[in-house]
């Protein structure tokens, strides 16, 4: 038994050894065969290697760019909003006054406890006027005090080319230097307004009210100190006789002259006073200490000079009053100090800043900044120079209390005291704002979700450490706006997804064609291998290794090239953003490349392996009879089971579309997943492209015949080749179908994406022009809504028009919507005369030239008042509806016309309004206007939602919340429109939720006056609120209405520098830091540059697709020529020469590519048009299709050229063979 078992073990060992030997021999045979095949047929290897290389390199590089894109978008966001991650602003603590600062020492102590915080830098910022001696023009600019060394060390403004600046040096925006004709080393001055400075400390008031607002707090602060030593009630109102004070002052003067006769008498007098204080029992310890300090100060100074100043003060006061109180003295002192409203700081220009690049936000415009070094001394010196000037002037010219008090103020001594008192004061220990940066900032903004989470986490940690009542408020400028830039990132990622899909389809089909062509060509060789004992499993290994022989080297070369290119791109991005991550290929991109390089040849080999194994051995060895005996067992089984493959695929597609429509899209809407929504939309459009392409490809053969007829109609001499070409097209149908389908699909995607880029560039351009509505727009976004200083803006713009008549064509103002004015009801409703239906509307007053200034090509009117005779037209031939608004033709005068509908306006309110006009305005002419209808322009959507139109009388109802009362006014709808730029107009019913109505300035003034007059009796609080608001408005407003926007249109083409300089001149009249100016021309140019890069990317994708298509066509045509070699030999035997044979295949290739190219182009245009119509449906812009001409010419004409060249290369080898060799199919 043991021998038997040993014998079995020996047998198994021998069999295992034989199998191992066979495996080694087979593997060695496979390797030798593969290398021999590469040496014999190098073209297939080179094509496969190049395909793998270019696809791996390009797609991997795209993934690397996607990983770098957060840095690019972060840099763009920083340029727009600044480098600050968290901005700390002071907030008044509970039970404290509005005067507030940030304690930087305390803040730094708390921020250092948060691990993700890098550091925090203090800043002071306020407005000033920038000027130069000898230059009349001044410019309004922001003045910034910062710690330049700290900001440079932590990276605030890291991309701004500035140095650490020294004492009394400033950096100035280049636009300011150009305006002042200044350069480095020049002396400039900065003019500061104390009232404006106080606004940064919480004082919100106009200049004429600051005096009254600050007077009492100033007196209270002085009285609080005096109350510690004067123990009397109402001591500030106690009257002192000037005559008695004059006697005392003269006696005191004589006394101090005596004690200062010698130093000994002065010393003895000082000791005498101290002894009296020491021995007195009427003093508290605190009062006694204060008395000692006063005595020391008095005797350290020149007492005779001080006594003479007191005597001069009393003598001057005696000239205008006989009694004086402490309160009067405080008033005089305040009146003196408030004259120091403006003072100048002289500084030297250290350099210019062309662009802030994140040092501060672009929206601030012109900027001047200096370092904290000696900033306190510089400000105090400038302030006391101004004080000296004011004191000297009041001594000479002011005969009142300020002039008398000026005798008491020793400017030099006060300045010395202030400098000594502020010796240890460091300005950087306090600030008006603090800028904080994160550690590893690039990682924090990879996605908006990460940014949001880190901001929430770190701010929670900060307030947990500092306390929830810590008196600061935190904003995250970058975190708030980074999502807008990531929308662009999502769009680009979808674009890269489409490009990846196109190139993958082409590369997979190309490798498949290579492998299937090799199998067909090597059928006999595979048959011989199998006849010699080669197993089918080893044949599979052979085919897989053959594919990997070009996939692995291509993958390696692709990774190396991708790494080198990524290093160059990363170097550029890092240098541009000054943020550093890594130069290596990201792990996700590396995994994508490796998986792509391995799976792409494997997937491409599935069908070739199946075809290789489906050949019977006898058929493989038969050189003269080619049969196809594919194994279709699976399909037969499914059909026998009653399952259709086509039905299954269609069912899965329909289920998928239904799931996307009913679940995925609503889910993205609910969770506001913009990225997911964009992906879904692109998936839908991609499936549309694929489905339409497959469907349209059914007409490929018919279109091929038509194209061939056209070609041969042009080339009549080759008409005799028509039947041969048609037979070739029919015989090569199955091979050509795959090629033409993929070419049509790729071209359709390229045309679709190219048209999409062009369309979105046009749409963004339209959006900017309709949103900003003119070349330059200035608007007030402040909470107070006090509007623009219309008078100063008008005065300056008229100067601009006179100075350069070719520069400005026109400008216009629009008023603040009536229901946004404080004290005015917010419920304005429009309805037919029957009061139903009634919908809300916002009324906005515009000027008569409004449409002439805005981009009127986006003005889409629908209906005008047909009864009006005199009309005017815009330059584009469209009737000017705003001119109609100011035309009173057909306007119903209710006071003189019977009201046939029985509905009139509020007569009681009209009576009050007339009385008010007489009382306050002394006008009688406007009384005739009060009963007339109000002309209005409304959106087209109100026609369907509210039942009103141009021919329907309408009512305006202004509802008061209290007592349910309302004012009603008759409306005359002069015009309706779908879109008016810069206004909420639409043709859809939903406009009734947010729509605007346009009225004249005069009617707006009348409505406001009527509302306020009716509110006098009804709601005094709201009336007072509105009255206070109108008192704060800038002076000399037309119609007394606050203007919140200014639109300016240029007459000629302007350069960017001209617009920047003009914008800075306008900024001189900005009254607060929340007035913004936008240059729509520059914004449009920026967006167009962005889409030019995208179009260039699309062309690169098209070029790579064309290269892959060339090899695909070459492989396909070589297979066609090889399969028809016998027919070629017959044709040559019956008399066709080499040129005619070449023409047959060239015409065939042109026919195929032209037909498939037309199909792809038509599909791309149809889908792009569908996409355009979708955008038009939402945006209500006019349909405008932009064809990507450059992309089309690159792909379509390039496709024809490569088809001709590929067919020529395919047939070239047969031109020099003998007819016998061709008939035998010998290579």
From TrEMBL:
- Residues in ABC3 transporter permease C-terminal domain copies: 499-614, 1099-1217
Q: Which InterPro entries match?
A: ABC3_permease_C
Give a GO cellular-component term.
plasma membrane
Pfam families in alphabetical order:
FtsX
Supply the alphabetized keyword list: Cell membrane, Membrane, Transmembrane, Transmembrane helix
Give the transmembrane ranges: 50-74, 470-488, 495-517, 537-560, 567-585, 591-609, 649-671, 677-698, 740-759, 1096-1118, 1150-1177, 1189-1211
Where's it found, cell-wise?
A: Cell membrane
Query: Domain of life of the organism in this record?
Result: Eukaryota
Has keyword Transmembrane helix? yes
Q: Give the bilayer topology.
A: Multi-pass membrane protein
What is the protein name for this chain? Answer: ABC3 transporter permease C-terminal domain-containing protein
Q: Whose protein is this, by species?
A: Paramecium tetraurelia
């Amino acid at each position: 038994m043991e021998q038997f078992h040993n014998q079995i073990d020996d047998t198994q060992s021998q069999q295992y050894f034989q199998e191992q030997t066979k495996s080694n021999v087979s593997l060695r045979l496979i390797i030798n065969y593969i290398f021999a095949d590469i040496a014999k047929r190098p073209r297939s290897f080179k094509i496969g290697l190049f395909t793998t290389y270019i696809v791996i390199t390009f797609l991997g590089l795209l993934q690397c760019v996607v990983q770098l894109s957060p840095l690019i978008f972060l840099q763009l966001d920083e340029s727009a909003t600044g480098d600050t991650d968290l901005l700390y602003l002071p907030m008044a603590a509970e039970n404290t006054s509005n005067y507030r600062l940030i304690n930087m020492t305390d803040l730094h102590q708390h921020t250092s406890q948060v691990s993700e915080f890098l550091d925090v830098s203090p800043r002071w910022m306020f407005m000033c006027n920038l000027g130069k001696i000898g230059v009349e023009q001044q410019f309004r600019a922001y003045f910034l005090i910062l710690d330049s060394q700290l900001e440079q060390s932590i990276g605030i403004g890291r991309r701004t080319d500035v140095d650490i600046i020294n004492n009394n040096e400033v950096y100035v925006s280049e636009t300011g230097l150009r305006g002042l004709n200044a350069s480095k080393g020049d002396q400039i001055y900065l003019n500061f307004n104390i009232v404006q400075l106080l606004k940064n400390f919480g004082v919100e008031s106009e200049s004429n009210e600051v005096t009254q607002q600050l007077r009492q707090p100033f007196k209270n602060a002085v009285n609080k100190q005096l109350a510690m030593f004067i123990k009397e009630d109402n001591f500030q109102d106690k009257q002192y006789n000037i005559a008695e004070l004059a006697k005392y002052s003269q006696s005191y003067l004589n006394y101090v002259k005596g004690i200062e006769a010698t130093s000994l008498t002065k010393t003895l007098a000082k000791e005498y006073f101290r002894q009296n204080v020491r021995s007195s029992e009427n003093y508290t310890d605190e009062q006694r200490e204060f008395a000692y300090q006063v005595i020391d100060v008095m005797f350290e100074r020149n007492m005779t000079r001080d006594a003479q100043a007191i005597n001069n003060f009393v003598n001057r006061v005696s000239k205008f009053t006989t009694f004086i109180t402490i309160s009067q003295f405080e008033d005089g002192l305040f009146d003196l100090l408030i004259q120091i409203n403006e003072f100048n700081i002289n500084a030297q220009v250290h350099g210019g800043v062309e662009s802030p690049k994140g040092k501060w936000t672009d929206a601030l415009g012109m900027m001047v900044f200096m370092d904290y070094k000696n900033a306190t001394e510089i400000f105090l010196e400038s302030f006391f120079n101004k004080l000296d000037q004011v004191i000297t002037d009041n001594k000479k010219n002011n005969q009142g209390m300020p002039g008398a008090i000026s005798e008491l103020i020793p400017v030099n001594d006060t300045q010395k005291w202030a400098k000594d008192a502020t010796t240890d004061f460091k300005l950087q220990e306090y600030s008006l704002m603090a800028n904080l940066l994160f550690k590893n900032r690039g990682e924090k903004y990879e996605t908006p979700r990460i940014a949001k989470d880190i901001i929430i986490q770190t701010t929670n940690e900060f307030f947990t450490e500092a306390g929830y009542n810590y008196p600061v408020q935190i904003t995250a400028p970058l975190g708030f706006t980074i999502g807008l830039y990531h929308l662009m990132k999502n769009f680009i990622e979808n674009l890269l997804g489409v490009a990846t899909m196109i190139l993958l389809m082409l590369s997979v089909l190309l490798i498949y064609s290579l492998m299937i062509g090799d199998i067909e060509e090597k059928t006999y060789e595979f048959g011989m291998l199998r006849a010699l004992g080669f197993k089918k499993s080893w044949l599979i290994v052979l085919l897989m290794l053959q594919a990997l022989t070009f996939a692995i080297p291509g993958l390696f070369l692709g990774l190396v090239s991708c790494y080198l290119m990524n290093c160059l791109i990363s170097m550029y991005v890092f240098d541009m953003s000054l943020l550093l991550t890594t130069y290596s290929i990201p792990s996700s991109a590396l995994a994508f490349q490796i998986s792509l390089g391995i799976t792409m040849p494997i997937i491409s080999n599935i069908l070739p392996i199946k075809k290789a194994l489906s050949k019977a051995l006898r058929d493989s060895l038969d050189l003269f009879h080619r049969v196809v005996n594919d194994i279709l067992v699976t399909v037969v089984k499914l059909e026998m089971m009653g399952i259709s493959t086509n039905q299954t695929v269609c069912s899965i597609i329909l289920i998928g579309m239904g799931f996307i429509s009913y679940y995925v899209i609503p889910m993205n809407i609910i969770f506001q997943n913009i990225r997911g929504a964009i992906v879904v939309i692109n998936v839908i459009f991609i499936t549309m492209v694929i489905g339409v392409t497959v469907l349209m490809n059914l007409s490929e053969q018919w279109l091929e015949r038509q194209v061939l007829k056209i070609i041969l109609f042009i080339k009549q001499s080759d008409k005799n080749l028509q039947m041969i070409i048609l037979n070739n097209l029919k015989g090569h149908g199955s091979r050509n179908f795959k090629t033409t389908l993929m070419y049509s699909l790729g071209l359709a995607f390229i045309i679709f994406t190219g048209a999409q880029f062009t369309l979105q560039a046009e749409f963004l351009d339209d959006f900017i022009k309709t949103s900003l509505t003119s070349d330059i727009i200035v608007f007030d976004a402040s909470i107070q809504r006090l509007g623009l200083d219309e008078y100063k803006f008008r005065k300056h713009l008229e100067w601009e028009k006179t100075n350069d008549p070719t520069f400005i064509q026109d400008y216009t103002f629009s008023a603040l919507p009536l229901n946004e004015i404080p004290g005015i009801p917010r419920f304005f409703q429009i309805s037919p005369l029957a009061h139903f239906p009634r919908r809300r509307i916002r009324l906005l007053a515009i000027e008569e030239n409004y449409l002439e200034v805005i981009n009127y090509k986006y003005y889409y009117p629908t209906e005008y008042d047909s009864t009006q005779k005199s009309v005017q037209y815009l330059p584009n031939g469209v009737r000017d509806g705003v001119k109609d608004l100011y035309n009173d033709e057909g306007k119903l005068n209710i006071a003189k016309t019977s009201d046939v509908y029985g509905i009139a306006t509020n007569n009681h309110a009209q009576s009050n309004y007339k009385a008010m006009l007489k009382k306050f305005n002394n006008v009688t002419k406007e009384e005739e206007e009060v009963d007339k209808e109000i002309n209005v322009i409304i959106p087209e959507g109100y026609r369907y939602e509210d039942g009103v139109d141009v021919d329907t009388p309408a009512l305006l109802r202004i509802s008061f919340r209290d007592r349910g009362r309302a004012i009603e006014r008759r409306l005359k709808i002069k015009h309706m429109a779908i879109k008016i730029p810069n206004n909420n107009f639409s043709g859809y019913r939903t406009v009734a939720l947010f729509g605007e109505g346009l009225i004249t300035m005069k009617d707006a003034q009348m409505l406001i006056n009527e509302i306020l007059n009716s509110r006098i009796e009804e709601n005094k609080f709201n009336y007072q609120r509105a009255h206070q608001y109108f008192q704060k408005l800038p002076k000399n407003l037309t119609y007394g209405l606050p203007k919140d926007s200014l639109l300016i249109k240029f007459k000629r083409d302007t350069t960017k520098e001209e617009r920047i300089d003009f914008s800075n001149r306008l900024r001189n009249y900005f009254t607060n830091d929340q007035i913004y100016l936008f240059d729509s021309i520059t914004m449009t140019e920026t967006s167009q540059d962005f889409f030019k890069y995208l179009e260039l990317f699309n062309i690169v994708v098209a070029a790579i697709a064309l290269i892959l298509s060339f090899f695909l066509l070459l492989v396909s045509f070589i297979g066609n020529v090889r399969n028809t070699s016998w027919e070629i030999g017959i044709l040559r035997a019956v008399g066709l020469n080499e040129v005619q044979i070449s023409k047959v295949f060239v015409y065939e290739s042109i026919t195929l590519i032209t037909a498939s190219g037309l199909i792809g182009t038509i599909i791309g245009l149809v889908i792009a048009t569908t996409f355009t119509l979708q955008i038009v449906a939402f945006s209500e812009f006019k349909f405008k299709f932009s064809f990507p001409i450059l992309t089309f010419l690159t792909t379509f004409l390039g496709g024809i050229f490569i088809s001709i060249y590929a067919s020529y290369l395919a047939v070239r080898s047969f031109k020099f063979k003998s007819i016998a060799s061709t008939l035998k199919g010998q290579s």
